[in-house]
Amino acid sequence: MYPRVSIHVVAYNSMDFLPELLESIFAQTFQDFNVLVVDNASSDGVATFLRDQFPKVAMIRNARNVGFSAAHNLAIRYAIDHWGDDDLSDRFVLITNPDIILSPTFLEEIVAAATVDPKTTGSLQGKLLRAFKQNAQDEVFCETVRSERIDSTGLVKHRNRTVTDRGAGELDTGQYDASTEIFGAAGALAFYRASTLQAVRYGDEFLDHDFFLYKEDVDLAWRAKRRGFSSRYVPKAVAYHHRAAYGAERQGWIARIKNRRGKSPMRNWYSTRNHLLLVLKNEGIWSGLLALPWILWFELRRFVYVLVFETRNVSAYFSALKLVPKMLKKRYARPVDRDHRV
Q1: Domain 5-241 is in which class?
Q2: pLDDT digits over 174-217, tens only?
Q3: Strands 33-40 and 163-165: what pairing?
Q4: H or E stretch covering 82
Q5: Which of 190, 292, 320, 337 is the most buried (most CB within 10 A)?
Q6: 284-322 pLDDT, tens per residue?
Q7: What is the rounded distance in angstroms from the CA atom of residue 313 to the CA atom of residue 4?
């Protein structure tokens, strides 16, 4: 019988973090799970490592880097196919980045919370705190520091339709210790009910394949909301995240620009394009009209910034334009059931 929770990791030259993640997974108090690593053509010896150190971990190896979304879609399809005739409302997928560390009771707490309202709660997220490597350049003395600085307590959607991590950058003093409904779960560590993933499925896609990288978690959260599913924050389910680019939830424009310049050009390109796709696919007509002043003001400022400081990213707007027909087709696709696809 296939385990109740299927844990999925997409790896791409992730050996700096993957061992610590897997150690934390197999130290869980809840043990009804399997682990599937989808490797996007890494060159750091991950296959040998898994075979020697974690033989229980299943692995799918792609011949090229197919991106975050496509790799996770492959893993989710694998899990749903193996659950067969099982009740998908009581089966779960945990999507986790390689640079995550779970506390020992993470799965126990989040699975318990998922059983409270199985009909409407489609996804859950725990309290994600930041971790960082101390003495990272020294293989002997390098150690992971688990901080009290918040990384994410769930996704928050704003009037201008930007989405941020709730509480990001704040010191954890208990201000987010109450379970509450959130807009969605952050893709670094997101817990999904399998029946919800099936309900928002488009063909072979759960995460939008066309997004490739970045904001696919926001798109999935928004689509699930449109289908009537809620998302819940579970503060007792604690984990830690080695985030590559740190930023606070509440930032002025100067801080946002500094944060953006600290990110890779590829990340900024996909972030620019995918935000436009997000709004096109998911924004309601009447809610969009009400929020139009905030949306237009934000988009105008960002376009001017890209035009002046990131001219290479102007192509992201043309790329988004080319995808308009496909996004509209996905937007208006009818829901699917367990046995049928769009």
Answers
A1: alpha beta
A2: 999 999 999 999 999 999 999 999 999 999 999 999 998 889 99
A3: unpaired
A4: helix 68-83
A5: 190
A6: 999 999 999 999 999 999 999 999 988 889 999 999 999
A7: 43
Whole-angstrom distance, CA of residue 251 vs CA of residue 228: 31
DSSP tag of 207: S
**pLDDT over threshold 90, residue 135:** no
Which two structure tokens, joined as six digits, stand for 198? Answer: 């099936």
For residue range 159-184, what is the model confidence (pLDDT) as tens digits? 999 999 999 999 999 999 999 999 99
Q: Is the pLDDT of residue 251 over 60?
A: no
Half-sphere exposure of 217 (CA within 13 A, CB side): 27
In degrees and rounded to multiples of 5, residue 113 shows phi and psi of -65, -30
CA proximity to 157, closest of 264, 260, 317, 282: 282
- DSSP codes joined into one string, 254-314: HHHHHHHHTS-HHHHHHHHHHHHHHHHHH--HHHHHHHHHHHHHHHHHHHHHHHHH-GGGH
pLDDT at position 72, please?
96
Cβ atoms of 36 and 9 closer than 8 Å: yes
Strands 230-241 and 121-134: parallel
Element (H, E) at 221: helix 216-226
Mean pLDDT for the stretch of residues 34-51: 95
By the 8 A CB rule, do 157 and 180 touch? no
Global pTM value: 0.90
Instruction: Supply the pLDDT for residue 160.
Output: 95
Distances from the Cα of 334 to the Cαs of 32, 80, 196, 325, in angstroms?
A: 34, 20, 14, 16
Closest C-alpha among 17, 192, 214, 179 to residue 97? 17
pLDDT band at 342; cut points 50, 70, 90: very low
Longest dimension (CA), the chain: 58
Chain centre distance of CA 74:
15
Task: Locate the domains of the chain by residue range.
Answer: 5-241, 253-331
In 3D space, the residue among 207, 229, 230 whose CA is nearest the CA of residue 218 turns out to be: 207
Mean pLDDT of the chain: 90
